[in-house]
Amino acid sequence: TDLNAFISGLPKAELHLHIEGSLEPEQMFAFAKRNGVSIPFASVEEVRAAYAFSNLQDFLDIYYAGADVLRTEADFHDLAFAYFQRAAADSVRHAEIFFDPQTHTDRGIPFGVVADGLLAGMARAEAELGVTSKLILCFLRHLDEDAAFDTLKAAEPWLDRIVGVGLDSSEVGHPPSKFQRVFARARDMGLKLCAHAGEEGPPEYVREALDLLRIDRMDHGNRSMEDEALIARLAAERMTLTVCPLSNLKLCVVTDLKDHPVPEMLRRGLHVTLNSDDPAYFGGYVNDNYRALAEAVGLSREDVVRVARNSFEGAFLSDAEKAARL
Ligand code: HPA
Ligand code: ZN
């Protein structure tokens, strides 16, 4: 359709992308082979068939298992560069990518192997594809705050190349309050702050992310829509929400894309962006997310333009940098 073609060519930023979640099954086999790692699947088809999730934890179990094929700096470089090639094909001009260092350091992969590999892939993407990017270190919320502090310490030599910190993994039972001290430290160090909130967790977790973590950007935020005062506050504070429609569908955060909260979020003046989250696991990259949602809920061209503009406005870039990317 006309709108699909318009979406394809529209310059956009992607602000919610877990680089480990861009590991396509074909790459999983290639990395397993070159590293001599065995994986519990016989074929790419078998891997894809396993990607039927009924909630966040179902997905996380398989996502952390998949990450075990990533061993060398070259693996992280290749993973990142392959993502940027797909992003460039979707007219993504700028991406702010999450990585989960604890998933790797807890398997004995040094922090520097992960960070240097990703940073090399990012530098190559800027030089060869013209896609700029920033790196965001996520703390795993199912682990304790001391482990997050250890990770921040391990990251110290790289902090001039890391724009901020995030909070991901199993949400329910691991409220933002658990990480209040490490987020305060990160803020003191000049890092930007984001957190996954309101994906499965209640509106109270969204409030904690705002009041206790003092986040600059909110990942997901869907369940904010259950709380009128919270909606008004997010609008008044111009908080950017990094919404991920195909992720929400695959993780059963919504049962049908037709019921997705984005139209209501836009009506209420929230600063919505659309993103792919873990594209290799959820069945689509950023344009697939724009297209599937636009078709399901009937977004207009103006809605789509607004969302793309929000993606640059919500980026951790200076005003001059934002203008240059548009
Ligand atoms: N939610 C929480 N943790 C995650 C996600 C997500 O959507 N993707 C990767 N880690
Ligand atoms: Zn996410």
UniProtKB/TrEMBL annotation:
The record marks H220 as: Important for catalytic activity. Binds 1 zinc ion per subunit. The keyword Metal-binding applies. The active site is at E199. Its cofactor is Zn(2+). GO terms for molecular function: hydrolase activity. Residues 11-326 form the Adenosine deaminase domain. Keywords: Hydrolase, Metal-binding, Nucleotide metabolism, Zinc. Its EC number is 3.5.4.2. Transmembrane segments: none annotated. Substrate binds at D278. Zn(2+) binds at H16, H18, H196, D277. The keyword Hydrolase applies. It catalyses: adenine + H2O + H(+) = hypoxanthine + NH4(+). It is an enzyme of class 3 (hydrolase). NCBIfam families: aden_deam, PRK09358.1-6. Belongs to the metallo-dependent hydrolases superfamily. Adenosine and AMP deaminases family. Adenine deaminase type 2 subfamily. This is Adenine deaminase. It comes from Brevundimonas balnearis.
